[in-house]
Amino acid sequence: MLDSISGPSSVASHDAVLAALADAHARRMRAEEEIRLLLAYARQFVYPHPYTFGELANAAGMSVSGVRTAFGPHDVEKVSAATGLDPVPSEGEES
């Protein structure tokens, strides 16, 4: 746990395999964040027709329930800050 807190640079000087794993983990974390932000944008910022959970699930290789829970208010705030857009009021979550 302490190695993951200290980051890949501290591991890199000790072991090439551990450094490669730490780098791969960092890339995965960035990719997961990008997916969350794209899902938040697709559901909260597209008007008048947000993408459906099914469309997003197919594109992201996730289940519909996984898409429903993949992003939260913090992700919506990050998208809003990055784009300067306000989230669209939702009429319901049945899509």
What does this structure look like?
- This protein has 95 residues and is mainly alpha-helical.
- It has one domain (2-83).
- It contains six helices and no strands.
Main sheet makeup: none
Q: Between the first and last Cα atoms, what is the distance in angstroms? A: 40 Å
Shape: elongated
Helix content: 55-70%
Radius of gyration: 17 Å
The number of domains: 1
Helical element count? 6
Secondary-structure-based class equals mainly alpha
User: Mean pLDDT, nearest integer?
Assistant: 88
Strand content: under 5%
- Residue ranges: pLDDT <50 for 5 or more in a row? 1-5
Short description:
By secondary structure, this protein is mostly helical.
Annotation keywords:
single chain, 95 residues, mainly alpha, 68% helix, elongated
Helices and strands in order, then pairings?
Blueprint: H1 2-6, H2 8-12, H3 16-44, H4 53-60, H5 64-70, H6 73-83
